[in-house]
Amino acid sequence: MGEDCIGQPVREALPVLNQQGFYELPDRVYESGEAYGGREERAVFDHNGDGKIEESFWNYVYQPLFDANHQVYGIMVHAVNVTDQVRSRQEVERKAEELLQLTRALEASNRELDQFAYIASHDLKAPLRAIANLSTWLEEDLEDILTSDACQQMKLLRGRVHRMEGLIDGILQYCGQDDLRGNWSGSAFSSFCRKRSSYCLPRRKCKLLFSPKCQR
Fold it and tell me: Would the pTM count as exceeding 0.85?
C-alpha cells in the first residue's frame, strides 16, 4: 500500500479487505449518515507496502461528510495502527493467565501438603503415643524382673518416641498447619534443620552443612 493507491477506489486499492467486512461499513455510514468507530479491529493485508500480507489491528472512524443540503457526499476515514499495543497487551494477558495457572497449581500443592501434614499428625502420632504408653505399662508391670539395662532401654525408647513426635510437630509447622507458612526466615529454618537433624542422623560420622545464606 503506497503512492500507487492514490486516486483509486478503496475497493480496488485494497481488494484483500473485501471478505473482512470493512467495505460494508462505509456503505452503511454513507446510507445512514451516522459515523462509525472501530476499536482494535483485526485486518489482514499488506499495510507496510512490502508485499507481505500480515495481521494487524486498527482503531478507526468512518465520518460522513455533508454538503450544503445535508446530503452525504463522501466519507472521511481516520485509522491508527495499534498492532504493537494490542500484541503487548495480549502478551501481558498470556503471562497473567500463566501466572494464574501457576498460582492455582501452587494452591493445589499446598492443599495436598496440608493434607499430608494432617495425616502425619493423626496417623503417625497416635501409634507413637501408643508405643510410649505401652512401654510405660510394661515397665510398671515388670518392675520386679526388669534389669536396670532394660529400664534404661525403655526410657530410651520413650525418648526416641518423643523426639519423633517433635519431628512431626516441626513438619506440621513447616507445612503451615500452625499458620506459620511464609514466616520462616533463613535463620529460623537453619535452626529447625539443626534441631531435627539429630532425630534422623545415623550414629556414623557424618556432617550436615548449611549454606551461609541460611543464616540470614
Answer: no
